[in-house]
Amino acid sequence: MDELELIDRFFRPLAGEGALGLLDDAGFVSPSSDRDLVVTKDMIAEGVHFLPGDPPETVARKALRVNLSDLAAKGAKPLGYLLALAQPPHCNEPWLKAFCEGLAGDQERYRIALIGGDTIASPDRITVSITAIGTLPTGTMVHRSGAKPGDILYLSGTIGGSNAGLSLLQDRSGAELDEEDRARLVLRYREPQPRTGLAEAVRRHASAALDISDGLAGDADKLASASGVRAVIEARHVPLDPALSKLFDHGFSLEKALTGGDDYEILAAIPPGEENAFKEAAARAEIPVTAIGRVEANGDRAVILKDGEEMAFSRRSFVHGQL
Amino acid sequence: MDELELIDRFFRPLAGEGALGLLDDAGFVSPSSDRDLVVTKDMIAEGVHFLPGDPPETVARKALRVNLSDLAAKGAKPLGYLLALAQPPHCNEPWLKAFCEGLAGDQERYRIALIGGDTIASPDRITVSITAIGTLPTGTMVHRSGAKPGDILYLSGTIGGSNAGLSLLQDRSGAELDEEDRARLVLRYREPQPRTGLAEAVRRHASAALDISDGLAGDADKLASASGVRAVIEARHVPLDPALSKLFDHGFSLEKALTGGDDYEILAAIPPGEENAFKEAAARAEIPVTAIGRVEANGDRAVILKDGEEMAFSRRSFVHGQL
């Protein structure tokens, strides 16, 4: 199948207004005059960020959603995306069909459309690179660097589930879990749930925010470092995936939950005067948020306390190496 | 080296204003109210679009310039780009240093800055995906679909040289060439010269345009098909790389020149009333342009005439498969 036929059969149905039917050299975006664009680009590769044999729909969703998670953490609303796909022979028609169905479902769910992209041959490995574009009112992007002493640190959802899901896939452990928990953890790994619904609340009320993609400890370090503050987190307040307690006697640990990757939750620094409004906005969006710590002056990293002592980790961030 | 160190040492020096020091989840673009953004995304992979062992600077330039070529063909001025890099172990510090030097030189040359991106581990193959963003006055993007009967078809520069350069690299042919010609052809393959300087002339005077990346015949088909016209090209008017004549008795052919890839010249349809202004603007930009044919009503493909007969090709477009 040549590239034109590929576009015709699989990608044109995904094309939005600025895509020009994917029949031009480039797409376009015509932003209104009172908006900034937020742009982010994440790449995922077979055998690194997803497993060979993972369902194509989930590969599509993961590729798109890790980018939507970045947009949400910056307070931006999704607008459009560009897709580059490196296709080895096993990325065949059934694979592509399912991959594009995964994208189509997410386009509807997150109200975003394809603007452009590229497909190339690959001798071996599937690689997907997505650039997502979001919009927000001029000058309102939420940075990592705005946290102020006195701010309260809020975390959306729960963490640790995704990394546990990866462990289940890799070593087939988790016999102590029932089928429902197993399936849910695997899905957390395969299909991040970007907190798009929280973007508006973050934009209106947070002084700083980022998405937790490489582990809470390391990502909290990044927020602290960018803001020139100390982030103090109480481990007992950090909401963990409810299934994790069943795994703690079986190789999984609190440390893994706090330093594992792929959570795609939002960590936000909320000034005390904005706390109630933030919590109310999150409740309206039906996204649970939990106060897990506070911002203190003078520092450049996060401290995670357990029983009053700072926890020490062998590594603070998850590094995506070969699976 | 972890990702933070990698950013710090190699990529931060490339970061423009909207990149936030590459220390945030996303970059931003704040377009002025009277401009549209043009976005394009091309991916290149080791062993497909460039050869293992190609100098890292040229890989960087090729990755960026194929995107700049798209922007130029749409009439857009470069603004910024995002970079995703899949790094296998042989993409080591000296490689990265040279790669980023290649980008730095081109950023100055084309006045474009890095806005954001991603680096990931790759077990084997270097893959580079770049998304380039350009700007132009609202509503003035030049499409492929605007060619009208009576328009004259203009081509920038010469074609065939890049494909001949690839042949030289692959089969070490070309003994009949002197060193200077050999080096120039190889450079044409490795380092496209996007016609950024022609963008303004294209935007002001062309009814349709595209960049020639997969061969003149197949790309002229695309312009004709998108515009619903017949593109009639006279082979004798098509400017070929001057070294090609020396290769025509040695395996290279006119067909290869007309259907080979990686030319990155611009094909533009110019209404007769705009011809002089277009040629003058091209001359001011010091970019040679040549009238190679005309647009006729009723059609959906290009016809390339040689001695009054339509040329037949075994394939009309270059397909980037494994090198």
From TrEMBL, chains A, B:
Binding site for Mg(2+) 3: 25, 70, 211
Keyword annotations: ATP-binding, Kinase, Magnesium, Metal-binding, Nucleotide-binding, Thiamine biosynthesis, Transferase
Amino acids binding ATP: 117-118, 144, 213
Ranges for domain PurM-like N-terminal: 24-135
Residues binding Mg(2+) 5, per UniProt: 214
Binding site for substrate: 49, 262, 318
Protein's name in the database: Thiamine-monophosphate kinase
Lineage: Bacteria, Pseudomonadati, Pseudomonadota, Alphaproteobacteria, Hyphomicrobiales
Gene behind this protein: thiL
